[in-house]
Design a protein that fits this description.
Number of strands: 19
CATH topology of the domain at 302-458: Heat Shock Protein 90
Number of helices: 19
Radius of gyration: 42 Å
Strand content: 15-25%
CATH superfamily of the domain at 302-458: Histidine kinase-like ATPase, C-terminal domain
CATH class of the domain at 302-458: Alpha Beta
Largest sheet: 7 strands, mixed
CATH architecture of the domain at 302-458: 2-Layer Sandwich
Shape: elongated
């Protein structure tokens, strides 16, 4: 009997040790026993979605793990763990609870654990903030208690019966713990089910987001296509408006020179002013559309800031509209004489502000401009501008709106002073493109002050000294030029233009790029005029070959002659080693000026009066100004070239269409290039616009060819009539 009792005692002791070992292993895995909670403390603080504490009025705030924070503090200032802020941001982003363990300690028989629970606070479907709950739980350390009891059992073998009774109690406790563990397991299963359900909901939300992203991409593509159509529409519309406008202004200038009577003079001046105002509006609309489409680019060139401001003021003084205008200029001496930036756009900013001051000021207009160096860091300089006037001023409640498109201070202003309200909008966006900001200060009937700053660069170049007027040098008699051009008509036009400038100039002709390379290697030319699209070897390949050769003439200046108006084509010319480019149909004066520049010859631009010029032809159908200038007013030469065009254009259109259908892309490009130059010289902008569409990917070239042919057939009788009257 005693043996049985002893065996039972040892079996129970083994069972206790096994249970204690199992509990220790389980406790080690769980790290914390939630089944024997002694005390639980909670406290909640509320933060906005950016991490700032909204309120610390919670009476239990002292028990919060983040209790050191006060209203207005940011959660990122909690220095014990810098990643706490990421939990708040993640909770706000996923809108789901997050759990973070702050610490866990064991002291004697008591375990202490502190956690932070991040919960999104949502009201009416809107995320208002994040509630951060601090939870501190105290629990009995069961592992230490059982180990202590085991040690007592080992030293009190003589009290076996008493130990058995205790073990029975412990067994009951174990059974109770097992039941609790079962309940905990059920709760855990429920929690896992909820997590799975939340995962499914999350997957559905992600699927919805993906569908929304796909829809957004589709909408973006539609917007992109719409913007492209808008850009094309604006370009075509502006061209169609400019063509009759140029004729209106040009003929008005002619009539003004015919000694009109006083009443006629007044009418003609009103027509000219209205025409130019309409031209300004068109330019503003185009500039705004370029900026909004991201097509506006700022150039980086050296320019004299003081000279640019002075010229801008001179233009304003010329267009003073009968007002008494005084403009005071104050430029900081610390500003470098030569800076790097887009002088045209900076001039546009100042002109818009000057015109704004003049428009909204009575007869005695006083404008002050101050320019100061705000900061300098190496070559980077920040320049501040201030333009003030004594005009009618702007109400304070409308000052924030004047930089918006199509907006003026009030309707009365629009009726009285006119304008579209685009000038200041364009000015603001140009300033922002330079990393600057524009502000306004104004008082009614006291005047207005605009302030803005531009980030420019300091130039290392010294200012160029201007030559005295009237000292233009004639080109040297032995100036040698190579003209690389495959089209015989274009060859004749270029030769006639240059010979009209100086009959003694020497011009060699190369019919393709390969011949041009051979001629450059054999001859010392002052300048090479290189057409881009030629047979055998195109102009870009020829330029690369020349630059990469071992010839002593490989550094000869090369000027590209291209009919492509695309920025990418012009950049390609420069990348391939060309020094400059001129657009075909070329402006004779522009071509000669660039030849002089690279040949080291001084050139003075002639003053032709009104830059719009006189239309030669039928407005809206054709304009032969460039062709007449290129032929130097030689009517016989002009008739000969027009005759060649009349006999070749129809065939070129048909061959371009056939080459496209047959897959002969080289021939198609050659014919298209020839037609582009022809339409340019004839001023047939409608046909040129249709031809430009053939460059688009997937363009229906046969259909477009039919449209171009129809325009050509409509224009032929008008050109014939024009030639007969010459």
């Amino acid at each position: 009997m005693l043996l049985i009792v002893l065996i039972s005692i040892f079996a129970l002791i083994a069972l206790v040790f096994f249970a204690l070992f199992a509990m220790k292993t389980a406790r080690h895995a769980l790290m914390f026993d939630y089944n024997h909670i002694i005390q639980k403390r909670t406290s909640t603080l509320y933060f906005d979605i950016n991490g700032f504490l909204l309120s610390d009025n919670d009476s239990t705030n002292r028990d919060h793990a983040l209790g050191g924070l006060r209203t207005g503090d940011n959660i990122s200032s909690y220095t014990q763990n810098p990643d706490i802020a990421n939990y708040l941001k993640t909770c706000a982003r996923i809108r789901g609870n997050l759990h973070y363990k702050v610490d866990e300690t064991v002291d004697e028989n008591v375990s202490k654990r502190t956690d932070l629970i991040f919960s999104p606070f949502i009201s009416n479907g809107v995320l208002r903030g994040v509630a951060v709950t601090s939870q501190t739980v105290y629990s009995k350390n069961r592992e230490a208690e059982l180990l202590e009891k085991t040690r007592n059992l080992a030293t009190q073998n003589d009290e076996a019966q008493h130990l058995i009774e205790k073990l029975d109690v412990e067994r009951a406790n174990l059974e109770s713990a097992f039941k609790k563990s079962s309940r905990h397991h059920i709760q855990l299963q429920k929690a896992m089910y909820r997590i799975e359900q939340q995962n499914r909901e999350l997957e559905q939300a992600i699927d919805t987001i993906n569908k929304q992203n796909a829809e957004l991409e589709r909408k973006n593509e539609e917007i992109s296509r719409s913007n492209k159509m808008k850009e094309v529409f604006l370009a075509n519309t502006s061209h169609e408006i400019r063509t009759p406008l140029n004729a209106i202004i040009g003929f008005t200038n002619l009539l003004l020179k015919m000694s009109p009577n006083e009443k006629q003079l007044k009418y003609l001046e009103n027509i000219k002013t209205s025409g130019k105002n309409l031209l300004f509006i068109i330019n503003d609309i185009l500039d705004l559309s370029k900026i909004e489409a991201g097509k506006m680019e700022l150039s980086d060139i050296d320019f004299d800031l003081r000279d640019m401001v002075e010229k801008c003021v001179n233009v304003v003084n010329v267009a003073r509209d009968g007002k008494n205008i005084s403009i005071n200029i104050d430029i900081d001496d610390a500003i470098p004489e030569i800076v790097v930036g887009d002088s045209f756009r900076i001039n546009q900013i100042l002109t818009n502000l000057f015109n704004n001051s003049i428009k909204f000021t009575d007869n005695n207009c006083l404008i002050r401009i101050k320019i100061r160096l705000l900061s300098a860091n190496g070559d980077d300089i920040n320049i501040g501008f201030e333009v003030s006037d004594n005009g009618i001023g702007i109400p304070k409640e409308r000052q924030s709106e004047i930089f918006e498109s199509f907006t003026q201070a009030n309707a009365d202003t629009t009726r009285k002073y006119g304008g579209t309200g685009l000038g200041l909008s364009i000015t603001r966006q140009l300033v922002e493109m330079y990393g600057g900001k524009i502000t306004v200060e104004s008082e009614l009937n006291q005047g207005t002050t605009f302030r803005f700053n531009l980030n420019l660069k300091k130039s290392e170049n010294k200012p160029a000294k201007e030559s005295a007027k009237g000292t233009t040098l004639a080109p040297p008699e032995k100036l040698k030029i190579l003209l690389a051009e495959d089209n015989e008509i274009n060859q004749q036009l270029a030769v006639d233009t240059l010979k009209a400038w100086n009959p003694d100039i020497i011009i060699d002709i190369a019919g393709n790029g390969q011949t041009a390379v051979e001629k450059v290697e054999a001859t010392d030319y002052d300048v090479v005029l290189m057409d881009i699209q030629m047979p055998v070897m195109d102009g870009n390949a020829a330029a690369r070959t020349i630059r990469n050769s071992q010839s002593v003439h490989k550094d000869v200046p090369i000027i590209a002659m291209t009919a492509h108006a695309f920025k990418e084509e012009r950049e390609r010319c420069l990348v391939n080693g060309m020094n400059d480019y001129v657009m075909k149909p070329f402006d004779p004066e522009d071509l000669i000026a660039k030849i002089c520049k690279y040949a080291g010859i001084e050139f003075e631009k002639k003053n032709n009066g009104d830059s719009d010029g006189e239309s030669i032809g039928v407005p809206g159908s054709f304009d032969m100004r460039l062709l007449v200038e290129a032929c130097a007013d030689d009517r016989a030469e002009l008739k000969k070239i027009i005759g060649v065009y009349m006999s070749t254009v129809s065939g070129d259109i048909s061959e371009m269409s056939a080459a496209s259908q047959n897959g002969d892309m080289e021939k198609m490009r050659t014919k298209r290039h020839s037609l582009q130059t022809t339409f340019g010289y004839l001023g047939m902008h409608n046909a040129a616009a249709l031809l430009k569409e053939t460059y688009d990917e997937g363009a229906d070239i046969p259909y477009l060819s039919d449209q171009i042919a129809a325009v050509w057939q409509q224009t032929i009788p008008m050109i014939k009539e024009f030639v007969e009257k010459m």
